[in-house]
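Protocol step 6 of 9: fold each sequence in the batch and record its structure tokens directly after the sequence line. For illustration, a two-sequence batch is reproduced in full.

Sequence one:
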Amino acid sequence: MNLTKASAFMATHARPLDRRRFELLTGEGDRDALLAALNAYRNPDGGYGHGLEPDLRSRTSQPGPALHAFEVFEELGPATAPEAVALCDWLDSVALPDGGLPFGLHVPDPAGCAPFWAGADPTVSSLQITAVVAATAQRVAVHDKAVASHPWLERATRYCLDALRAKDELHALELAFALWLADAVEDIEAIDLLGRHIPENGLVHVQGGQEDEMMRPLDFAPYPGRPVRRLFNDDLVAAELRRLDEEQQDDGGWRVDFASYSPAAELEWRGYATVKAVSILTRNP
């Protein structure tokens, strides 16, 4: 990994939010600047929109962007932000009676939005979106007691842990995000149950995605020392880390293997993917 080239890529191409995230990750950032960049996407109701999720360009607060907000709140740790609890309040207000979140709410401004976001059913709970939002919130809860004690998080987590046990088949993204949540709350039984869906090579095709779009071992278990890592042997993880390192492009950034729904989103995903790749490579020995 060439951090100098990665830094140049971020300065040249990434949106301000991911530039601030990269700076904090590499030891040159400022937490106040990062929170300010995140708040550019915040709505008065406490939720987030305005393209924080690159393929969801709507101005409206949505469950999907909440994931990315919680990512930032995790990165701010050990500092906390009142916006994190306010986001829990907003999520509680849009959660369905079973504790789950809908995949998406009504989108009145669908320009540039992926059809799966714009056409989501707001009356049905989604294991996929609830698990990824709750998993990231659980990581914030490690250093933010107000998030840890929020009733929305307990309800959402219980919904997911019950739902994953009730499903015989899981979409690749459901599988990955359910594993993230099981890992965050250290539910070993759930991790082992979900691990049965992953073949020995660690590759699970993303149904409905690109022909070669896969969830890979580092998508399921990106960081060492976590319970979910027990699903993958050390040699496989080492090979995946080498692969990730070699995927750095000549311009210094990384790419994603899924389709984007606007030119802006395609470039924004590259900045996001570069932060993710650098984070994984620097945190794995």
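Sequence two, same batch, same settings:
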Amino acid sequence: MSPSRVLVLNSGSSSVKYQLLDMHGGGRLATGLVERIGEQTSRLKHTCLVGGGSREQNGPIADHEAALKAVAEELAKDGLGLDSPELAAIGHRVVHGGMFFTEPTVIDDAVLTEIERLIPVAPLHNPANLTGIRTAQALRPDLPQVAVFDTAFHTTMPEAAARYAIDPKIADRHRVRRYGFHGTSHAYVSRETARLLGKSPEEVNVIVLHLGNGASAAAVRGGRCVDTSMGMTPLEGLVMGTRSGDLDPAVIFHLARVGGMSMDEIDTLLNKGSGLFGLCGDNDMREIRRRIDEGDEQAKLAFDIYIHRLKKYIGAYYAVLGRVDAVTFTAGVGENAAPVREAALAGLDALGLAVDPAANAVRADGPRLISPAGARVAVAVVPTDEELEIAEQTYALVESKPGSNPGPAGE
């Protein structure tokens, strides 16, 4: 039997999340997180899901190379080391693939060069992704390394949805267009929604609402994305934990000219000091709901702004799709915050959208419907699984083209 394990790496600027999966039905074998890389207070939390239990180590981890070596050591303690002949590939989450990458891609020098070229449109994410890739290559140079791009699922958007209304020559020169993000989540969840409805993805139109600290909506027609809320960067769209989402661009000019703020200060404000956190000082929906229950008006206003924006996108994507078979909530808030789901669809009965209060209140791990029986449009909660999606795409690629390198998809 051919090697069946895939290690999935999600390398952030100061963290590495990882999962080891067996693609021949063995499920997850191990999961873990290395955080605060480069600090004295670094932490590695590792869990072996085949009898090894959980372990944690605290202390300085200098860089991503040291982090991945520590991960390899933890896996080896459980007999799951990177030197295992059962390891088929390493799959890497890469946030931005631009228009160059439309599908998972075996990594070579040309792929690395293009990911590097995209750093100006993903300065917070692509450098960290590159570091993780290069470190993994050094540890296992003989093993296929596959990049799975957050943006790839959204490359099916028509130009009318992907283009901003600015001079195309300037836009093309500087790669200014709407790329979208959370693509692995939207792909997985839209497909699982179709399965929940007993249909194939090609038969179903779905509005997917990925609501976590980062949040995005996607309109998916027959398994293909036709619009999404995030744009050239993850800043556009819904109100998020710390990001503003949609904003009149002139606000930036105003803050610079009248407020005397630098571009870096405005960037920090909109990405890290806005959204729910900027509105009420909290970006945890559980805490916001607790404050609302205690009569906190600032928390209530933040929640209302969040819901207002979310409802606008649901209506807009209903119009884009024309026919909607399901609206699906996913990610931390979408899966767990029943008041958000209820409020987002309140008053949309004329569109066939409603939640059953009893079904909505149930906490469950698996995919489920929360719409009333016989509803014209299904409302679903589907837990996302980006790591499984990355692993499946990685394994399918290396199995279909053993020993080959398909390279980038082309401009």
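Proceed to step 7 once all outputs are recorded. Observation for sequence two: Residues 79 and 264 are 47 Å apart (CA to CA).
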